[in-house]
Design the sequence.
């Protein structure tokens, strides 16, 4: 059997621009990167809309109206931005330090389930109830990530398999608890009684951030968390050490960072943020736990984190744009005959375009140009001689 | 009750459906083990499978022949893997991200195509979609229990089992397999030894696309003749995970695939007893974690060293 233990399967860390680049090159690469991917993004989107016999400009108008057209629409935008930012934050914390946490989805589901249960079966004064539920949801997300972390630390089991397995387990476990335990199994006809937990008590409803819209306090919480992560990584010793673990492990070890301890902290922190996200979603939007509401949230968070290049402040912008597209796509479907799945396709096409290694392409092009110039000057010199 | 469960769990029909349910995983993992062994972190099985599900139905719908459906499925599988390869090997984008983007678009694209071509959402069902016919072997009839388990299956099932042996031989007894493994273990050393790394990665990627395409075709055209939104529903990830757990060894992967197939068969069989199906559906995933845990016990030396 080949000895593959030492090889790390996934390396998620985005390639940093090399330090020895000239300032001009750096600027050119950034411009090249964003203009190319934006142009490709716009062209792909226009093509997709045009293929459905609609006008792309009308579609953009629909998105604008659905996301900024009125206060309600703006509230919708913020509502969709909040979970994107939170899952993105969970992904950033993990991937910045080299932990491949693909189990965000499961952690969100478990957090949401705990929030749904505690919201139904307990009655506290309003603020206390919300805080209690959110803390419990956070803790449950954290506990759900303990198993992969322990397996990784003590038994060298690659975390990306275990976290992905835990997604499925979380999905089925919550389904089981909702359908079989809470609802008491199938009825006489063999049908499922409930697909979700009962609606939570009024005291656990998350208050609105903008009155009379769907934007709840989830929005400021999401912003606060991403700022907190930015602060942690930029200004604290702890954050510096965490970053070192991801960027240069040997250096970190030589520098006396307690690598194992930091690794565990990151894993748990990532799970905790994901759990909090689940709790907030249930308290703020759905007011009950639906089976499978967390589907795809993990992948979305990872993509958003990657577009933001693992930068917590950039995350807010990307998450906001994600919210705009999500809220706008529904309005677009209503106004123009374009299917809202188009927006999803275009979104992920942008992810694809922006993940291209532009630095390599630029440098190769530059090398070729230099070589050509050198050869030509050489030729001229030999001709003159 | 327990007696009933045990009787059903070891009944002939359970084993028969185990082999049928393991097939999509087998095709994908036998084609994909080279790609993973050559060091590509390829997560895009789910996308390839979903696309090939849809296009195999389309091919069968247009022509009325399952073989054209199979060709369509393989073709689209190769096409998607070429897109993945262009992104990851030519443009050097992060493989995991390229795969996530492909996976997330696959569901949307197939649903959109479904609306455009068939004009429905949810399920495509049409009598013009033709499945493979089961093959009946006369000589198996005298074999008793084997007859019940192995006879009267779609031709693809038999191909899948032959493929395991072929894949093993190719992996461990041919220069191709040797080079693929060499690239996976040490890319630079393989390059120094004169192996064209990119060429082998491309070959393995296209193999992965073609065979995962077959497994997508198997899902739709092995009897049910219809396409449902998000049809693989995690089978692609299971394929990738069984490759990773089997450490690229086709025989080990075969065992893991059988484990997944068996537990899926249990879900079908025990569902009739009105047992909680979710708990049974959890079995393979929990089993994987336990297998990995037992495997890891050997390496237990206090806190593991973290390497990048």
Sequence:
């Amino acid at each position: 059997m080949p000895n593959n233990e030492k090889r790390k399967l996934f390396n998620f860390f985005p390639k940093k621009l090399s330090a020895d680049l000239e300032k001009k090159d750096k600027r050119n690469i950034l411009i090249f990167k964003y203009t190319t991917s934006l142009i490709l993004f716009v062209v792909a989107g226009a093509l997709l809309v045009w293929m459905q016999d609609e006008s792309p400009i009308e579609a953009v108008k629909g998105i604008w109206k659905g996301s900024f057209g009125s206060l309600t629409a703006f509230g919708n935008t913020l509502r969709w931005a909040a979970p994107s930012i939170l899952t993105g934050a969970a992904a950033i914390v993990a991937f910045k330090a080299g932990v491949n946490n693909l189990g965000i989805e499961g952690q969100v589901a478990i957090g949401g389930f705990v929030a749904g249960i505690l919201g139904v079966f307990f009655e506290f004064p309003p603020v206390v109830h919300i805080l209690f539920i959110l803390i419990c949801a956070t803790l449950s997300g954290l506990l759900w990530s303990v198993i992969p972390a322990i397996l990784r630390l003590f038994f060298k089991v690659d975390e990306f398999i275990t976290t992905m397995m835990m997604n499925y387990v979380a999905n089925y476990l919550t389904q089981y608890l909702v359908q079989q335990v809470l609802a008491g199994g199938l009825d006489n006809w063999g049908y499922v009684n409930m697909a979700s937990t009962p609606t939570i008590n009024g005291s656990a409803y998350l208050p609105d951030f903008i009155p009379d819209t769907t934007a709840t306090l989830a929005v400021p919480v999401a912003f606060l968390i991403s700022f907190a992560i930015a602060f942690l990584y930029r200004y604290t010793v702890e954050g510096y050490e965490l970053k070192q673990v991801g960027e240069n492990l040997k250096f970190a070890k030589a520098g006396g960072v307690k690598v194992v301890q930091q690794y565990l902290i990151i894993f748990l922190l990532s799970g905790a943020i994901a759990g909090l996200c689940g709790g907030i979603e249930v308290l703020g939007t759905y007011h009950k736990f639906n089976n499978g509401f967390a589907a795809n949230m993990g992948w979305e968070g990872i993509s958003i984190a990657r577009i933001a290049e693992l930068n917590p402040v950039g995350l807010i912008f990307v998450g906001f744009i994600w919210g705009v597209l999500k809220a706008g796509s529904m309005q677009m479907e209503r106004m123009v005959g374009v299917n809202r799945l188009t927006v999803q396709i275009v979104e992920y096409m942008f992810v694809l375009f922006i993940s291209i290694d532009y630095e390599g392409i630029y440098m190769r092009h530059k090398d070729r140009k230099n070589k050509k110039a050198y050869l030509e000057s050489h030729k001229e010199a030999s001709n003159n001689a | 009750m327990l007696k009933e469960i045990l009787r059903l769990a070891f009944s002939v029909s359970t084993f028969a459906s185990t082999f049928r349910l393991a097939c999509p995983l087998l095709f994908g993992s036998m084609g994909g083990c080279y790609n993973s062994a050559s060091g590509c972190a390829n997560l895009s099985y789910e996308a390839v499978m979903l696309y090939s599900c849809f296009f195999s139905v389309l091919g069968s719908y247009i022509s009325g022949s399952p073989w054209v459906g199979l060709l369509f499925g393989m073709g689209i599988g190769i096409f998607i893997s070429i897109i993945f390869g262009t992104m990851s090997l030519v443009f050097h984008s992060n493989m995991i991200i390229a795969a996530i983007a492909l996976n997330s678009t696959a569901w949307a694209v197939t649903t959109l195509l479904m609306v455009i071509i068939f004009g429905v959402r949810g399920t495509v069902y049409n009598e013009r979609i033709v499945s493979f016919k089961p093959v009946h072997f006369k000589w198996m009839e005298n074999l008793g229990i084997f007859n019940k388990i192995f006879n009267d299956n779609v031709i693809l099932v038999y191909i899948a089992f032959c493929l395991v042996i072929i894949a093993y031989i190719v992996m461990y007894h041919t220069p191709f397999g040797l080079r693929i493994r060499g690239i996976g273990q040490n890319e630079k050393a393989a390059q120094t030894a004169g192996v064209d790394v990119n060429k082998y990665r491309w070959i393995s990627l296209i193999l992965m696309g073609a065979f995962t395409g077959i497994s997508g075709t198997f899902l739709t055209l092995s009897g049910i003749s219809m396409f449902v939104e998000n049809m693989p529903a995690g089978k692609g990830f299971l394929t990738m995970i069984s490759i990773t757990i089997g450490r690229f060894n086709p025989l080990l992967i075969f065992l893991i695939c059988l484990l997944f197939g068996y537990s899926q068969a249990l879900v079908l069989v025990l569902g009739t007893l009105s047992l909680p199906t979710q708990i049974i559906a959890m079995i393979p995933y929990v089993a994987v974690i336990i297998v990995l845990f037992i495997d890891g016990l050997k390496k237990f030396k206090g806190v593991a060293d973290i390497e990048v």
